[in-house]
């Protein structure tokens, strides 16, 4: 089994302060999920043929901001539910 690669930042790289972690998490989570969902929903609704990527980009332009705010709102509830069902010992 191959070992996981750990990405180590450059020592002098500019980084976002830790207090912004929930927002950075929400940004990446929303961006990835909104793009994947846009691809699937556009394919299901109109098929994968000419103009597919353009339709995905248009759907993503609406989905990304909505997903970002949804992740920000839902994250505390999800964290609570995870702590309720996972043994954190």
How would you describe this protein?
There is one protein chain. The chain is mainly alpha-helical and 89 residues long.
Q: Please give the radius of gyration in angstroms.
A: 18 Å
Q: Separation of termini?
A: 27 Å
| Mean pLDDT metric | 91
Largest sheet: none
Number of helices: 2
Number of strands: 0
Structural class: mainly alpha
Mass-distribution shape:
extended
Contiguous uncertain segments of 5+ residues: none
The run of helices and strands is: HH
**Fraction of residues in helix:** 55-70%
The proportion of residues in beta strands is under 5%
Blueprint of the fold:
Layout: H1 21-46, H2 52-85
Helix pairs in contact: 1-2
What's the quick description here?
This protein is mainly alpha-helical.
Question: Which descriptors would you attach to this protein?
Answer:
2 helices; 89 residues; extended; mainly alpha; 67% helix
């Amino acid at each position: 089994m191959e070992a996981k690669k750990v990405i180590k930042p450059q020592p002098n790289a500019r980084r976002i302060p830790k207090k912004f972690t929930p927002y950075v998490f929400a940004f990446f989570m929303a961006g990835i999920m909104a793009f994947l969902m846009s691809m699937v929903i556009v394919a299901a609704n109109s098929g994968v043929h000419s103009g597919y990527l353009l339709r995905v980009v248009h759907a993503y332009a609406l989905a990304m901001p909505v997903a970002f705010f949804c992740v920000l709102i839902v994250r505390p509830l999800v964290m609570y539910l995870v702590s309720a069902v996972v043994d954190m010992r």
